[in-house]
UniProtKB/TrEMBL annotation:
This is Alpha-glucoside transport system substrate-binding protein. PROSITE patterns: PROKAR_LIPOPROTEIN. InterPro entries: Bact_solute-bd_prot1, SBP. It comes from Nonomuraea solani. Pfam families: SBP_bac_1. Keywords: Signal, Transport. Residues 1-18 form the signal peptide. Belongs to the bacterial solute-binding protein 1 family.
Length: 440
């Protein structure tokens, strides 16, 4: 156990237990006032915790290794529940039934505000907040806060401005990684002419289409307009949105560019689209975040050899860097919940996870040397030293009804656009109607 960790966990326990009584206190108990565990017993021996997150498959297995490290350290017994893609639909009934998980991992910071407004979250203890202040920049702390009060820990970051490709497909067609959108369109044509679809689109998973839009929009419209659109301060009928959709249509509007055409794309989810690139070899590229690495490895490709990536090409003046992330929050006044959040916010917890594929840490004190390959090290450094033009995933900042619900809002409007990429005005009208409802 790291020096000082036991005392920190005990301090967190004392604060959390005091909070359970709902009575106002003027002083917080210190670690020395708490009864220490018996000899040979760990700080949370006998404590049971439930953690709910959206991850399945390889991502779930990796996260369970992190939870095991916490259990080994503290003695707590942790069970994992998968929320599926629609985290809000899973958590809503459990919150209403007063049976939420101890800790939930939210894929959208917008949900932090939503659940805080419902009094469904527990404010972070001083011990957890101190861990965040030590290891994170204020930007990441703010994303886990509501009305200036910290509720969540950004435990996992995603670099969403990447185009992954199968090296052999590029070599066979004589294609080079694109640096501009025009080069990407040209490369797509060359790949299609060589007999390989340029792109596998994960259209059945609507969030992947929002990622594509955000990169094109950030690059073509610029960071200032991106901020305005993310807050619905300009409408989705704005000409800047039309420009972005026109650019996207240059690729998704050509049947031979997309594996299975638009109808095939709408039946392909994530991670099946990654398998189409590296396993069945139906396509040469997939546009998605660093966590593609996990699925590429599952398909038998080695990252840096068969599975390579290049930065999302510039569409306009801005080289886009869009980040996503997952926020851990406590939904029960449970000492174990706060101890787990403290562990997830720590350098120690981040480094356990960083050694596994498909993970990037927003924790500035997690050394990139922990990452399993050179490409991930480079991405990790980008996350830590990101500049002012970096923006957080727009759909994840939006109300869940617009930016994070399967079959509704932005997801459905962009899926409908994929069916008919020539109807730009219709797509804009649908997006604006959905946005008005969500922001109302």
């Amino acid at each position: 156990m790291r020096k000082g960790s036991a005392a920190a966990i005990l301090a967190g326990l004392a604060v959390a237990v005091a909070a359970c009584g709902n009575a106002p206190t003027t002083t917080q108990p210190t670690a020395s006032e708490s009864a220490p565990p018996a000899a040979g017993e760990k700080a949370l021996q006998g404590v049971k915790l439930e953690v709910a997150a959206k991850w399945t498959g390889a991502e779930q297995k990796n996260f369970e290794q992190v939870l095991k490290a916490f259990s080994d350290k503290t003695g707590a017994e942790v069970t994992y529940a998968s929320t599926g893609e629609d985290t809000g639909a899973y958590l809503g009934p459990r919150i209403q039934g007063k049976n939420p998980p101890d800790v939930a991992i939210l894929p959208q910071p917008g949900l932090v505000q939503q659940y805080a407004d419902q009094d469904a979250l527990k404010p972070l203890t001083d011990a957890v907040t101190k861990e965040i202040d030590t290891n994170y920049t204020p930007y990441w702390k703010e994303l886990g806060s509501a009305d200036g009060k910290p509720y969540g820990v950004l435990i996992k970051a995603a670099h969403k401005s990447l185009v992954w490709y199968r090296a052999q497909a590029f070599d066979d067609a004589g294609v080079q990684p694109a640096t501009t959108w025009d080069e990407l369109v040209k490369a797509s044509q060359t790949l299609a002419d060589s007999g390989t679809a340029a792109l596998s689109l994960c259209g059945a998973s609507g969030w992947t289409l929002t990622d594509l839009f955000e990169n094109v929009y950030l690059s073509s419209a610029g960071p200032e307009n991106y901020d305005k659109l993310s807050k619905h301060e300009i409408p989705w009928t704005d000409p800047s949105v039309a420009t972005a959709l026109e650019k996207i249509g240059q690729i998704v509007g050509k049947k031979e560019f997309v594996a299975g055409g638009s109808s095939g794309a709408l039946q392909t989810d994530f991670p099946s689209c990654v398998s189409e690139v590296y396993s069945t070899k139906k396509a040469a590229m997939v546009i998605e975040a660093d966590f593609v690495a996990v699925e590429a490895v599952q398909s038998g490709a080695k990252v840096g050899e068969q599975a390579k990536y290049f930065p999302f090409p510039k569409v306009g003046d801005t080289a886009p860097v869009v980040l996503g992330g997952d926020v851990a929050v406590a939904m029960k006044d449970s000492p174990g919940a706060m101890a787990l959040l403290q562990f997830l916010a720590s350098k120690e917890g981040g480094e356990v996870w960083a050694k596994l594929p498909g993970y990037l840490s927003p924790n500035k004190n997690v050394s990139p040397d922990n990452y399993p390959d050179e490409l991930t090290k480079q991405l990790g450094q980008t996350i830590v030293s990101a500049g002012d033009a970096v923006r957080y995933d727009m759909s994840d900042l939006a109300p869940s009804a617009f930016g994070g619900t399967d079959g509704k809002g932005e997801w459905k409007a962009l899926q409908d656009f994929l069916r008919n990429p020539s109807d730009i005005k219709g797509a804009q009208t649908a997006l604006e109607a959905e946005a008005k409802k969500a922001w109302k």
